[in-house]
Amino acid sequence: MARVRIGEILIKQGLISESQLQEAINLQKQQKGKRIGEILIEKGMVTEADFSIALGSQLSIPYASYASGLLNPKTDQSLEKLVDYEFAKKNLVLPLSKNHHSLTCAIFDPLDFFVFDNLKILTGCDLNLILATKTDLLKAITEFYVTGLNAAEREGGTLLDQALQKSYADGNLGPKVEDKGVTADSELSIDRLIAKAEEAPVVKLVDLVIRQAIDERASDIHIEPFKDRLEIRYRIDGVLYQIPPPAAHLHLPIVSRIKILSKMDIAEKRLPQDGAISAKLEDRVVDLRVSTIPTVWGEKVVMRLLDKGSVKLELANLGYEPKQLEAIRKALDSSFGLFFVTGPTGSGKSTTLYSCLNEVFDPSLNVMTCEDPVEFKLDGVNQVAVRTDIGLTFATALRAFLRQDPDIIMVGEVRDLETAQICIRAALTGHLVLSTLHTNDAPSALSRLIDIGVPHYMITPSLVMVVAQRLARKLCPKCKEPYEAQGQVVGGYKIKSDLIYRAKGCDECNHTGFKGRVVVSEVMAINDEIRNLITQSANYGEIRDAARRNGMDTLFESGMKKVETGMVSVDEVLGVTTVEG
After folding, report:
1. I want to staple 56 with a disulfide (CB 3.0 to 4.6 A). Which of 63, 161, 213, 459 is the partner?
2. How far from 491 is each of 159, 270, 502, 503, 580, CA to CA, in Å?
3. 295 burial class (0-12, 13-18, 19+ CB within 10 angstroms)?
4. How do residues 194-252 score in pLDDT, each as one tens digit?
């Protein structure tokens, strides 16, 4: 039987016109992977409910809304095991009830026969279909699989807030009375601790903490015990925000659950530990780097989220000015040389290095990296994780690399003279070497190399570029507030734009006023003038002045240029850079 076209059904029902359908088809060609129905709904040509009702009427499939209460699955039939959460959310399918070999499901697209074939194989059942909108289905799927809330508990808050309210109401997360189980100070047997960690409320709570962190674009999760409370904080755009915490007595089982997931020793509470978790979220995998450390009130846990899907590893997307981008690309085109990215911890150095590797990667090249640890796995790149406990240091890995016929080498960080010398030798023998240093600005990188013992004559011929950077929070485009600059002068910099912007706050940015971050940078190309100054043992100021004469913007100037474009606020630039005299 020929597949029924959704567009033709909607025209026949009188919901859209031929011209609207053609417009949607043209948009679909530009937005590959989107369905016609989604485009029609997004453009306001048809409502979700009208779309589903019309389609159901044409195909003789009943329609149900969330408000009707018909999207409530039976809770005593183990439907969540029959159709798992990942399949349900990815394919917009919600099992409602099972009767012998017949399964009733709510669906979004009744013409996706591939999904139905898979569902039949997965469940071994014949299917009875009910249509629902995408919004209603997602809400019902989340409620059934994630929060487990009943109809009286559907209102307000994030998934984590709702789950906490539910668990407090059930007595799972509230203060304990005459409970001989877990307390902040208790020492439990390993078997008992594992059993507590595997209890449903704890498992659900840990899953929700991680899921909400990913949804809110957090880079880190902090779980911190104190005398009479437990705190959970997310770092979003570089700032820590507190979220509603569970009761203090859940600290031990939460930490134990995280340790089990990250393959740590749950019996060891006196020493710091490191581990890793891979969390699958819909169609992508998010890696979590886990660290624990003993504090006076118990173990603190920090989880670093490494979501490659949310980070575009492209230099053009990081926020460099056009002339800076041109200089960086010119340096990366060098067949050999040493390329440094500098800045404090959390300034985006690793992301910049990965983006540089993406820029220069070619299948004909042998690209090798040594990192501590490997943050993002890059296809086609040979990546080695440093392990100092067995003697695999940066220097050891670098020596081995030079026997592996490399073209491009990336070193996570130059920390000592031995690593620096091997990097320089590699750069002088025909390799492009990329690495990081911890310095305040670009000219300071030269002083840092000299301080750790690298002689001037080795720096001069090897160094091709130093990039110093910070990350500034971008103003939320939905709510940023304009005001007149009127030739305002900040730190000697005269603002050229008539209007600049400040943070306000809205639902889109969780009322912070900011969404995302952008690079504020100094890009110092090493030219003949600077090489001569290095050879003459010139001081920091002389090298900085030469770089400025050759067109280098300082961190402050780079930030103020982004103020003029409306991307960041003056306060944010003053917070991440030093005002120029």
Report:
1. 63
2. 45, 49, 18, 21, 6
3. exposed
4. 665 555 677 878 888 888 888 888 999 999 999 889 999 999 888 898 888 888 888 98
CA neighbor of 18 nearest in space, from 38, 42, 45: 45
Q: How far apart are CA 123 and CA 203, in angstroms?
A: 26
In the Cβ-directed half-sphere of 92, how many Cα atoms lie within 13 Å?
A: 16
CA distance to 440, 499, 569, per residue, from 320 (Å): 18, 22, 17
8 A C-beta contact, residue 319 and residue 328: no
Token pair, residue 227, equals 């005398």
Tokens of 432: 């492009």
Edge-to-edge strands of the sheet including 284-295?
A: 239-243, 230-236, 220-225, 298-306, 284-295, 273-281
Specify the residue for token string 């030739």: 487
At 35, the amino acid letter reads R
List Cβ neighbours of 558 (8 Å cut-off, separation of 6 or more).
Answer: 321, 324, 520, 521, 522
Locate tokens 């159901």: which residue?
Answer: 56
Contact, 434 vs 410, CB < 8 A? Answer: yes
| Longest alpha-carbon distance in the chain | 87
C-alpha to C-alpha distances, 392 to 138, 370, 384, 399, nearest whole angstrom: 47, 10, 9, 11
Position with higher pLDDT, 487 vs 385: 385
* Cβ proximity of 371 and 384 under 8 Å: yes
Question: Rounded distance, CA 244 to CA 266, Å?
Answer: 25
Question: Nearest-CA neighbor of 109 among 165, 43, 41?
Answer: 41
d(CA 143, CA 193): 29
Rounded-to-10 torsion of CA 97, 98, 102, 105: 30
Q: Which residues pair with 99 in a beta bridge?
A: 102
Contacts of 354 (CB under 8 A, 6+ apart): 313, 375, 376, 378
- CB contact burial 543-557 (16+ within 10 A = b; e otherwise): bbebbeeeebbbbbb
pTM to 2 decimal places = 0.62
Q: At what angle do helices 159-170 and 200-215 cross, to 10 degrees?
A: 160
Query: Using the 8-state DSSP alphabet, how is residue 181 labeled?
Result: S
DSSP string, 40-98: HHHTTSS-HHHHHHHHHHHHT--B--TTTTTT---TTS-HHHHS-HHHHHHHTEEEEEE
- The answer to whether the CB of 550 falls within 8 A of the CB of 578 is no
Q: Of 53-67, 91-105, 140-154, which one has max mean pLDDT?
A: 91-105
Radius of gyration of the chain (CA): 28
Residue with the two structure tokens 């031929």 = 18
Cβ contacts of 41 within 8 Å, gap of 6 or more = 47, 48, 51
Residue 377, pLDDT score: 81
* DSSP 8-state code for residue 549: H
* 333 to 327, 409, 429, 465: CA distances (angstroms): 10, 14, 16, 11
Q: Measured between alpha carbons, how far is residue 561 from residues 326, 475, 524 in Å?
A: 17, 14, 17
